[in-house]
Fold this protein.
Amino acid sequence: MTKGKKRAGSRVARVVRQRAAAERRAAALEGMPGDVARVLASPDALPEWKRFLRAYPTVPEAVAAVRAGEVVEVHSEEYVSLVRRVLVAEAGAFVETTLHPPYGTVAAIATGLFNSDDRAAAVRGVLAAMPELLPGDLRVEGLECVVEEDGDSPLPVFAYRYRVAAEGLGSWGEHEVAASRFAGLADALGWADRRIAVGARAVEVLRGHGVAAVSCAACGEPVTDRHPVWPGVWVDLLEESGPVCPEHDGAAGRDGGHPVLDLIDIGGPHRVDGAGGAR
Ligand SMILES: [Zn+2]
């Protein structure tokens, strides 16, 4: 076979494969509600949502699957950490959405818990502070602040959660309408840290509720001197630099006779005044 024929043959095979894939996609979309078909056809939609919607195209189908013993849930990390579950209780079926705060908030909470002598009291303090970490317009009725123990972590996981009754809902679009008062939460808790309190501001709110959170006076990062592998050293959990403060004044260090390797500033500690007060 000549090179030209080979190329023509592989072109034909590719066209056949593409046509078959397009037909499979069209068959998969057939009978899907319009909003679901749009997501399934979108190249931008994430695979976890496509899998979820393909399996459960409507709310009643999701509820029926739960009643048949299936675990109906999707975990997404698109721009916010979100878990959506469909659950059936005695009072009826509901759709539950759990949203986790971004790193900047988690770092303040985590260091606050490490710094506290009374873990149970600190957990209560965090739960009480959580509504105040949100902007006022998002402190809406029905929004719960929850804590989950994760067996693998030395710290519990905090989250915001809302539930919408599944009864009467047909499409997932109807669920979004029923949950519309919570709609701004995903953006507020997104990776961009746009509206929820983070860093030093989150520390301030937590301290107002008796949690011994502390932030560095120089860089503002929440810090702890009870990190499991850095005991006795003030470290932040968020930056890779850990015990090294990005705002440490190297010039002042040189004047004060602190070690500098040739021309390389080897950094310095975070600045914490008064060890964070009451623990
Ligand atoms: Zn610092």
The chain has a mean pLDDT of 86.
